[in-house]
Amino acid sequence: MEQHNPPGSDKKIHYAPWEKTFDKVFTPFEEFIHRQTTSGFLLMAFAVLALVLANSGFAQSYLDLSHVSIGITIGGWVLEKSLQHWVNDGLMALFFFVVGLELKREILVGELAEVRQALLPVVAAIGGMVVPALIYYAVNSGGEGVRGWGIPMATDIAFAIGALVLLAHRVPKALITFLVALAIVDDLGAVVVIALFYTEQIDWSMLAIAAGLLGLLVSFNYVGIRRPLPYFLIGILLWLALLKSGVHATLAGVLTALTIPARPKYDPDVFSQRVKELIGRFDKSYRPGMSIMNNEEQRAIVQTLENGVKMVETPLQRLEHSMHLPVAFLVIPIFAFFNAGIPLEMGALGETLSHPVTLGVMLGLVLGKFIGIAGVSWLALKLGFGQLPAGTSLSQIAGVALLGGIGFTMSIFIAELGFVGQPELLLMAKTGILAASLLAGLGGYLWLWLAGNARQRPDAV
In angstroms, rounded to a whole number, what is the distance separating the alpha carbons of residues 361 and 148? Predict the structure, then answer.
């Protein structure tokens, strides 16, 4: 335990080595970027680990682990799935919950709150979804892999932001903001595509139950329920209802998130006055040499302050803050571990890369995203729709368009839905996703690095 004496003070402050962040104040956006960046690197590490295991002497053990059956039995009711399915259908619902929280925040107070500011990333995201899907469809039209048209539509927000943040000193902050807004809209598009086009036969009775549960969640919001537990309990029932209805169960995460209250209970001015009063009482109740554990009044004041902080924050903010860490550092890496393990046969690599599914995914993610995002952005600006983020250039938007081709998490997720029971096509799709993500990541990084150099030259335009 370290001890530090602040200048001008005889009171000791005790820090554990990892507890020196109290003096650092991060905005929600800075915290979001920091966690997405770290998540991107962790995601990469687990993806590489899965690839190594799938192409080593442990390949069969890795495969057997994915297929371990885990079930829940309550009386005569049984829910049984493989470990990989529990990850993809269960844990990923938490990922979609965080996506829903981020989406709601962006629409209410973020980059999507103002129409003029949101217009360019929104139309760019739409272009970046439509063009890749059309390219994939053109390559696979009439073939058995045509169902995978939704795979190249998605952008992996953690990987893309991680690559862009590495260039933080060479690109304006507004460019990172643009990418975040684009990726959030992209995630929404992927959710809609999954709901409408990657849904099995629908059980309308279970769907009606799901609608009733969603209505109950909305009523929780309207009557002012702010504690997360009721939302989580009903959210779990909603997940089960959607699972049985045929609609993909992970959508329960997004729907539950959209019902979380986004208004604080306490007004900031009232909270500020109350905190000042409590801090005054806290100082007066200080007893030299007495630990706070023995000072009942100070303990009560601290607890009151904690309760007040919870009330001046919105439940949406608190949940996004608390859920982002386990999702970014646990759920996404586990998903990568169980889904990125692709057996690579070097002798057949040429045949794999020329397969229509692999080719469609690669062209869609690399070429389609570039044309869709950069091309639609250029067209929108020419037509007077939207405006470039402050301090950015169209060349830098083109670099972001390349980074948008990093598909990974959501692309693999859609591939798993599109090619159920077709392991060969799933293998081709995943190979295309990994190859395209690598090309797009390196290409986008180099493009923006060179664009940063150009902006620093005296003769730069």
Answer: 8
Q: Report which of 3, 86, 59 is spatially closest to residue 331, judged by C-alpha positions.
A: 86
pLDDT over 70 at 34, yes or no: no
Please provide residue 131's backbone torsions phi and psi, each rounded to the nearest 5 degrees.
Answer: -60, -45
Name the residue with higher pLDDT: 150 or 456. 150
Tokens of 413: 């997720």
3-state secondary structure of 70: strand
Residue 150 φ/ψ, nearest 5 degrees? -80, -10
Quick check: 356 pLDDT over 90?
yes
User: DSSP class of residue 148?
Assistant: G
Q: What share of the chain is helix, strand, coil (3-state, %, to 5)?
A: 70, 5, 25
Between vectors from CA 459 to CA 458 and to CA 461, what angle results, nearest 5°?
110
Both tokens assigned to 309: 């902080």
Q: Is 207 exposed, middle or buried (0-12, 13-18, 19+ CB in 10 A)?
A: middle
Distance CA 37, CA 43 (A): 10
Please give the helix or strand (H or E) that residue 81 lies within, else none. strand 77-82
Residue (of 377, 395, 373) closest to 385 by Cα position: 377
Residue 374 has pLDDT above 90, yes or no: yes
With 0-12 CB in 10 A as exposed, 13-18 as middle and 19+ as buried, what is 33?
Answer: buried
Q: If you compute the radius of gyration of the chain from its CA atoms, what whole number of angstroms results? A: 25
pLDDT per residue over 300-343, tens digit each? 888 877 777 777 788 898 888 888 888 888 888 888 888 888 88
Q: In angstroms, rounded to a whole number, what is the distance separating the alpha carbons of residues 217 and 221?
A: 7
**What does the pLDDT average to over 47-71?**
89
Instruction: Please state which of the four CATH numbers 3.40.50.300, 1.10.10.60, 1.20.1530.10, 3.40.50.1820 is assigned to the domain occupying 28-199+248-263+314-456.
Output: 1.20.1530.10
Grouping H, G, I as helix, E, B as strand and the rest as coil, residue 13 is: strand
DSSP-derived secondary structure letter, 357? H
Distance CA 186, CA 233 (A): 28
Torsion of CA 123, 129, 135, 141, to 10 degrees: -130
CB count in 10 Å sphere of residue 130: 15
CB-neighbour burial class of residue 248 (10 A; exposed 0-12, middle 13-18, buried 19+): buried
